[in-house]
Amino acid sequence: AQYLKSDLLRQFDMQVNDFMDSLIEESTSLEPAPVPAVFSPPMSDKERSKLRYCSLLCYQGKLFVSRRSLLDELFEVNHIRTIYHMFIALLILFILSTLVVDFIDEGRLVLEFDLLVYAFGQFPLVVCTWICMFLSVLFIPYTLFYLWAQSHSGSHSHLRLYSLLFGTLFLLYQALGLGFLPTYTVVTNSFPPASCFIIILEQVRLMMKAHSFVRENVPRVLAWCKEKNDSVLTFPPDGFFLIYLYFLFAPTLIYRDKYPRYCVLYI
Domain limits of the chain? Predict the structure, then answer.
């Protein structure tokens, strides 16, 4: 069995080396991709005027536009595709060699998930903690901001006092509700590494989401207060809560009322 194992490993090494040599020879023989396939073509006059218009709106912050993914552009290059396929092939060979070696040594497939089970231990408590964090971020910052905006919409006096009050409540929520309580839960229950990372990373993400929501909408409320007689400018917009709910799941930390989305057709 030991001789068969060493002979099998030697054959695998020879096959991997031959495969790598053939891939390297193939990649060096490929012709370089034309420049227009990698870089974007020159802009037309219409696109230049649109770019100048967007630069005039730079004071509004980052502008999300539809564009191709960087990976899509890279995979148009033959060399990048070759390297990608090399990694896939090496991964498959590594999995096959590990399975064969385990079968030779143990006489069976060794599927040990003890480390995985330990790393994601106390998972029900992790899910409950995340649900509490998400629901608090969904309702508390939105409610505080909405009440603050309503206080500015009417003829209330002491607006600075209202701003100080709601701002203090929001900072206390950020520090205690999202900062202290999840950390206390992790430390008290001695979460394993993976479960601990889930709570901490979600804690940071939700804190940044809530901060971005307030930071991007406060100037809009102040501008709306100055132009309340303008019938075109309204705040909050229709479906404001649903927009905020979508923002909590969107893969971005910058709040906007809408984002460019591709139409996906499911057949």
Answer: 2-111, 116-249
